[in-house]
Description:
alpha/beta; 15 helices; seven-stranded antiparallel sheet; single chain
Amino acid sequence: MEIATIKGDEVLLIYHPADESAEVGLQYKITELTEAHDGLVVQIISNDSLEYIGLQQEIIQRVLEERLAETIHHLDREYGLGQMRSLKIATAKIRKRIRAGNWESWDGWIPTRNVAIESVQAEELIGHVIPQTRFAMPFCAYNGTNIDLDGESLNMVNVITGVKGSGKSHTAKHFVLQLSQNRVPVIVFDVNGEYIQMPGAQVMRWGENFRPALDEMGHPMLQQMIRDVRPLPENSEAVFASRLPQIWRDRREYCRQRNQPFSIDITTLRNVTWGGGNYVQEAIDSRLETIQGMGFFHEYQGNQAQPLNLAGMYALAAGDTKNVGQPIIFDMRSLGSSSQRALVSAMNNVIKTICRDEASATGNGRFPFVFYEEAHFYISEDVIIDIITRGRHIGMGAFFVTNTPQELPRTVFRQLDNLFLLSLTHNDDIKNVSNSSFTDEETIRSFATRMPRHHALIIGNITRRYPLVVKVSPLPEHVPASGQTRSTWDRFGSKD
Length: 496
């Protein structure tokens, strides 16, 4: 392998495939022969056939020789020219400067052509780019060498993206497993039923086994739900929004005076006089009747069952010294888009409250990681931006799992802490992912369009911002690799 040219941060390397392997994603050290401790670390991003003077004439000659082989003897074909045709040229990006044996940020220095070029061994690469960890997450490998990813480096904003079938949910499930095993609370908003069979999962289906008490969820959830499911006219909305907090306070004081725990439900609200006239009263009552009929909230009156204990669910998700965490999975497949938006909006508010409680003097610091699968279906751009900006300050980590990254706001990628990139093919998706400050569009495009199944480019705090291509391990046998897919062909049975 020899240096052809170095321009900017690109190095062109000429090599013969019989002697060298220069697959996309591999690393090489280029060190001065006279000073072996100084040099560069480069990473291959593409391969091309070599072009040279006379190549076109040589190809034409070869085609003619094969065409006329039966009647005309081969023309002057030399062995060296045949070997020249096999040469390839690899494009590499400069990733690090080697100075006195240490890997540092590249400062523009380039070597002479009097160099030694050797591949970087897996152990050396991992030692330089993977931070030391107290909370290991072992589910991937580089060149056959297992890697323990650093759990603490996941804070706070992470994106897992790739086309359908590339293995993004497979990768996300590994993180759910590893975080839960490290007793980190995990909450997943699942639109495809991908996570419902995770070990120990607390699978919640709103309106079925998830009917939280309205007093625990808070009145903002009810307001948001009405806006999403059946919006009020403008005048009625104004009355409802202004009166609801006061009604909430009055009910709390009513319960306090009677030494009762605070409780409120839809029936209680339907018995309230809202003011504003009969039209407003009827408009609000009809919306409350609609919400009540959906069965999404616990009703105290005439109900002997206890309301769902969100605090208890969260405690199970956090685990303890004897038990790993049991992730909370919201299975949203049966919900319409408006109900999905209402649920996620309300739970985001609940999560913020949980984070504030966990940060208080009496809290335990058990801050959650929340997985949003295809967030653009049920969260507005403003809410996503709020999650990634305020989440850092309240302790909430987030994973956005999507096969259409162009639907996420660009701000997500500008404030990204870690990117897990599987195969991408759509030009707009690649451009949006390239808004990350970690690396350039050429690197993203090169890797995204060449990524084998269940391989991922990892870059961010978790790799000290070094773009590393890894193979993601198979999931444990008891964890399905994908969600359940139903097909009309199932009724005919399996193939022989």
